[in-house]
């Protein structure tokens, strides 16, 4: 791992932690600052309980700041996931793992990326309205957690464990236990490149992938 790669990885971690704390602080400040207004609203409406729109409790600057931080975290999640899959496929190729295993991994990796792509486009779409920035609902985070939890159960604990067994003896220990550095640019795994270039991918699949790159403001890695 080069110095620049280590710095980028540290930077991503710091951004996620910093953004999380900042988002939490902004939400608490907005909630406490407008608690009296919310109580008055409930009293004025016959003491009925209404779900208060959290976006309405923030000024435009707070709302813009929190949404930009949410999207920045989402971009890091995309880059980290794509690169983890890319690195795994790199090991499969370099150490000549049987084609049957390679095929299973490629199919499942491409399927995961399609699901992540769909989730991220939904997140980007919910981040704005006709009036400007809009707070991204927490349901998106819950859906992502469920998606990754299913991936851990269905793929990592089964297929990746089997892959590890196959790699032991073929790859040096240093290769299997090294830290993975996530570059600033988005590296697309060969599995998804192959999918997009295949007859199985529709024009819509390609359109949605390019849309995710654009709306999430990702920079594609280009090999020279």
TrEMBL record:
Lineage of producing organism: Eukaryota, Metamonada, Preaxostyla, Oxymonadida, Streblomastigidae
Any one GO molecular function term: metal ion binding
Top-level taxon in the UniProt lineage: Eukaryota
Name the record gives this protein: Hemerythrin-like domain-containing protein
InterPro entries recorded: Hemerythrin-like_sf
Family classification: Belongs to the hemerythrin family.
Keywords: Iron, Metal-binding
């Amino acid at each position: 791992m080069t110095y620049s790669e280590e710095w980028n990885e540290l930077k991503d971690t710091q951004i996620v932690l910093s953004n999380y704390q900042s988002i939490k602080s902004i939400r608490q400040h907005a909630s406490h600052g407008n608690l009296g207004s919310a109580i008055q609203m409930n009293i004025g409406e016959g003491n009925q309980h209404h779900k208060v729109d959290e976006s309405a409790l923030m000024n435009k600057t707070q709302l813009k700041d929190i949404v930009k931080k949410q999207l920045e975290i989402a971009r890091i999640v995309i880059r980290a996931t794509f690169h983890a899959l890319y690195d795994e496929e790199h090991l499969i190729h370099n150490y000549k793992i049987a084609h049957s295993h390679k095929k299973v991994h490629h199919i499942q990796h491409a399927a995961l990326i399609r699901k992540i792509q769909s989730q991220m486009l939904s997140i980007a779409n919910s981040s704005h309205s006709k009036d400007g920035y809009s707070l991204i609902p927490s349901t998106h985070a819950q859906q992502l957690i469920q998606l990754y939890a299913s991936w851990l159960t269905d793929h990592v604990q089964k297929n990746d464990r089997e892959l590890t067994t196959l790699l032991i003896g073929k790859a040096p220990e240093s290769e299997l236990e090294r830290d993975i550095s996530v570059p600033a640019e988005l590296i697309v795994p060969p599995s998804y490149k192959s999918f997009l270039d295949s007859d199985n991918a529709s024009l819509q699949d390609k359109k949605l992938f390019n849309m995710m790159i654009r709306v999430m403001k990702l920079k594609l890695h280009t090999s020279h």
